[in-house]
Structure formats: structure tokens, C-alpha cells
Amino acid sequence: MQNSPSPQTFRPASPLRGSIAVPGDKSISHRALILGACAVGETRVSGLLEGEDVLATAAALRSMGADIERTGDGEWRIHGVGVGGLLQPDAAIDCGNSGTSARLLMGLVASHGITASFTGDASLSKRPMGRVIEPLSRMGAGFTSSPGGRMPLMLEGADPAVPISYRLPVASAQVKSAVLLAGLNTPGITTVIEPVPTRDHSERMLRGFGAQIEVGEEDGARVIRLTGQVDLQPQVLTVPGDPSSAAFFMVAATLVESSDLTIRNVGMNPTRAGFVGVLRDMGASIEEVDAREVGGEPVADLRVRHAPLTGIEIDPALAPSMIDEFPVLFVAAALAQGTTITRGLEELRVKESDRLATMAAALTSIGARVEENENGLTVHGTGGEPLRGSANARVKTHLDHRIAMSMAVAGLASRDGVEIDDASPIATSFPGFESLLEQASSPEAA
Ligand SMILES: O=C(O)C1=C[C@@H](OP(=O)(O)O)[C@@H](O)[C@H](O)C1
Ligand SMILES: C=C(OP(=O)(O)O)C(=O)O
User: Fold this and answer.
1) What residues make up the domain containing 110?
2) Dist CA 257 CA 15 (whole Å)
3) Which of 34, 199, 206 is the best mutation target for the ligand 1 pocket, counting ligand atoms within 8 Å of the beta carbon and taking the most?
4) Is 192 within the bounds of a domain?
5) Binding site, annotated residues for phosphoenolpyruvate
6) What pLDDT is recorded for position 446?
7) Keywords for this entry (predicted)?
8) How far apart are the first and last CA of the chain?
9) Are residues 390 and 366 in the same domain?
10) For 293, which of 90, 155, 362, 445 is 20 to 30 Å away at the CA?
């Protein structure tokens, strides 16, 4: 999974035009495989993201007894083992670069009477797992982790597990989902209290699979109650396009003059769509065409035309609904007129890289003016003047796909182009990114 580094240069582009579709949503794809593996019978999924992160989840579920088969391009079939039916894996579960695989699968395993070790790449091995170790231990699971609650770690599941009521101390859909997935095979009611709402794909899909789940509001917090040990029914699912992947093309088309690009089939779940509103507030021209529902999720085609941007102050309350889009938002801000101020983004420090430090260094190295604060960046834009580019030093991406793609977009809006040190992590979430970029900016795309 960890390829040798593959440097790549992204040069100023011709306008992005025509119509493209981005790959399936990563969060929804992980969950479709996991819940399919917990149902008895055949679940069919189309539009599944075939990125390395999702493939790591598929491999893990196979190693615990689920029968998972690729039947065509994005078409997958899963024969599940039923709630509580996972088997002891023979080897360590390798989650590669994927925090979602690690945390959601730990939740799932925590309420089975099996033992599993979890490993990952150099990036994942630095990320905090204490946030799931803590609630899952309260449910009865045992953990032996590397120092600081890191991976590699060994998980001894509990059967029966103990239902808990857990108030999320961090706004994290991965932690919420880990507790809910553990709750699937836990007798009684598992409760998650979410003071700040995060993406709700788990709740939507659990309901779709027939889980007994109630979502309400109490004292301004979302409260999710799941009754355990209820059978799940296999489903036929269609995964919408990933809004976090679409964000790179939204910014690229906004920045490159004369662009007029339609991105088809983009997920517009309100818990994910914060970025579209923020980019519009900065002046972007994004039109939603044919808003509809696909697989229980709101979806639209987005027509994005070049427009000048203005710096703004971003409301920290929007952070969870656009958390993975900040790296590319910083690129947009670097080309805007005036200053963009962001705060409340401490979670960015524990993603695939420290995304505040990495983006501050990357943008500064290509000529942008950026100040790094404890919990955000302040970016002084050029007012549309191209950034210098990475004349003689490769930009460091720290095994982080979103940094690689953000700096690729920065290359399109630079004078000399941007060379990144390693494009291989892009395949974790967006296989085909480079060819789609070429396709959208080729003169025939119009
Ligand atoms: O639940 C999910 O699918 C995800 C939740 C977010 O992480 P956190 O839960 O750590 O915020 C996000 O950054 C990640 O890309 C996917
Ligand atoms: C944070 C991300 O993913 P994960 O946590 O699954 O590694 C991401 O895709 O930006």
C-alpha cells in the first residue's frame, strides 16, 4: 500500500470545461461495506469508491469472514456474516493510511469475542486512537496500544459488551460511528450524544439497513440511540460522488480563468456541504442543478464558473461540515483579494498530517503569505495574481492525499508550476485525480 514516492509537477492549466463525475463518497463507501458485512444475505453497492482506504476496509472485513466481491467498475457484492458474526482474523488488520478504517473497524470488533491487531502506515501510526480506545474500553473491550494510544495496537473484544451513553468530547464522526458500530452487537441501548453535529452517514445507513436507531435533540445536542442485537437487512445501495473530492475541482474551476465546469452527482448532505456555502461567500459561482436524492442522500450537479474571490472570516461552527476541505480552501484563500481568517481547526492537526502546519509551509514555499496560529491559518491573498510556484524545491506533502491534491490545484494557479514530492497518496481517496484534471482542462473538454 505504501508506494515509493512519486514526485509530480502541476502546471498552469487551460480552462476547466465540460462535465466530469468524481468517484464515490469515501465515508459512505466504508460504511456500505461495513454494514453489508453485518447483514445476512447479499448487499449490492454501485458507485463504491475504489480508493486504497476503502479497499483496506474491504480486506479487513474479508479477513473476518465476510464474502466481498467486485463485480464491475464500482460494483460490489457483499455477503455478510450477520450482527455479531465476525470471525477472528488470522493476521493483523492493515488499515494503511485510513483513519476511518481503523476507528470504525475497532468499533465493530470491540463487541465481538475476538482479538485483532491493527496496523497502519507511518501517517496513521502517529494519529490518536485514544479517542476510540476510551469509549470502547468502557464498553468492555481491552486494548494494548503503542505509547500515546497509537497504532499498532491489539484489541480484545468483549462479548457481551456493555451499552454506554457517551458524550463526544471531540466533534468526530469516526468516534461516533465507532461507538454505534460497537453498539450493533451490544445488548440494550447504546447512546451517543453529539454537542456539535458531524456527518450523519452512519445514522442514515443504519436506518436504511433496518437497525433500530432514533435520533433526537436534547438540550441543544443531537442524541442517537441504537438498540443492539437487531438483525440488519441486506440492501441495494448507490454511493453518491464525494463532495470532498469535488472540492478540488470547485476551487480549480473557480481559480482558472474562463473555466465553466459541471461536476455531476455530488453529495450535498448538509453535514458535509459547508464548503460550497463558504466558497460562494467568497464570491464563487456555483450553481446547483437537478437537486435530487440518491441512496438516501441529497445529491446535485454543480456548475462552477471562474470568478474572483474575496477573503472572509470563516465561522468555526462550520468546521465539521467541511473539515477535509480546509487544505484546498487555504489555496483558494491564497489567491483571493484580502485576508481569510480561520479558527477552531485544531482537529486538522491530527489528520493524515498536521494540515495547518503542512499547508502553511507548502503555501509559503510557493510564494503565498500565511500566518499559522494555534487553531487556524490566516491567509493574505494575492487578489488573483498567480503564486510563484515551487521553482527549486519540491513541496512536502507528508503522506497526505489532501495536501497533494490541494497543492496540485495551487500549481494550476501558479506562474512556474508546483512540484509535489509524492503524488502516490492521492490514490487513497481519489484514484484517477490526475487524469480527470487533464480531461477537464484539455481543449476538447468544452
Ligand atoms: O467518519 C468519516 O468517514 C470521516 C470523518 C472525519 O474524521 P473525524 O471523525 O476524525 O473528524 C473526516 O475527516 C474523515 O475523512 C472521514
Ligand atoms: C481525514 C481523512 O481521512 P481518514 O481520517 O479516514 O484517514 C481524509 O480523508 O481527509
Assistant:
1) 26-226
2) 6
3) 199
4) yes
5) 26, 99, 127, 174, 355, 402
6) 62
7) Amino-acid biosynthesis, Aromatic amino acid biosynthesis, Cytoplasm, Transferase
8) 36
9) yes
10) 445
Tell me, yes or no, whether 141 lies in a domain.
Answer: yes
Asked if 221 contacts 194 with a C-beta cutoff of 8 angstroms, the reply is yes
Examine the domain organization and report whether 58 and 194 are in the same domain.
Answer: yes
Q: What is the pLDDT of residue 294?
A: 87
pLDDT of residue 1: 45
Answer with the one of 226, 261, 293 that is the final residue of a domain: 226
Which residue ranges in the chain fall short of pLDDT 50? 1
Residue nearest to atom 8 of ligand 2 (CA): 324
Please give the positions annotated as active site: 324
pLDDT of residue 277: 98
Query: Quick check: ipTM above 0.85?
Result: yes
Ligand 2 centre distance from Cα of residue 431 (Å): 15
Residue 293 inside a domain? The answer is yes
3-class DSSP state for residue 98? coil
398-330-439 Cα angle (round to 5) = 80
How far does the centroid of ligand 1 lie from the alpha carbon of residue 416, in Å? Answer: 34
Statement to judge: residues 164 and 257 lie in one domain:
no
Rounded CA separation 428/324 (Å): 14
CATH of the domain at 273: 3.65.10.10
Position 3 in a domain? no
- Extract the C-alpha cell encoding 66: 465476510
Ligand 1 in reach of 269 Cβ (< 6 A): no
CA 138 / ligand 1 centre spacing (Å): 22
In a 3-state reduction of DSSP, which class is residue 420? strand
Are residue 244 and residue 212 in the same domain, yes or no? Answer: no
Annotated binding site for 3-phosphoshikimate: 26-27, 31, 172, 174, 324, 351
pTM above the 0.80 mark? yes
Domain end among 202, 226, 250: 226
Pair 269, 217 in one domain: no
pLDDT recorded at residue 443 = 72
For 259, the 3-state DSSP assignment is coil
